[in-house]
Amino acid sequence: MKKILMLCTSLFLLTGCSLLGEVNSSLEYADTATGYVSTVKEFANEVPGLAQDAASDTEGMKTLETELQTMKTEIEEFNETEPPQIAEGVHDKILSSNQKLLDGIDVSLNNIEDGTFDPSVIEDSEIMKTIDNITSLTKQIEKLGN
Hints:
Helices cover 87% and strands 0% of the residues.
């Protein structure tokens, strides 16, 4: 009887630990994803103004290029994040949007390099639409943390 009780207790503890680990992973992912979405929002707020500055100023162009490169790095780092099983759906949505965002950033960086950059392209581009898609996932991410 003691062996059965010990076995049941052990199984309960192992299951509980696994569940606790999943909860911790969900909370960590929610924090990471929330921080990433905040970074994307900041980028969205800054880039249109930087693009306008870049049109008339070589320093502004360098600043814009640096911000685009920095955001590209942020995206690539977030893409390496391993989501817990419960967050895979929202993570896949972010990854899909991130690919579009990377494509738009690459186009802008190529245009800067070629000297054909047009600031209106940023505002009307897939970049801003994709950022809206990413930020719209905020509520889903917040649910992971609750």
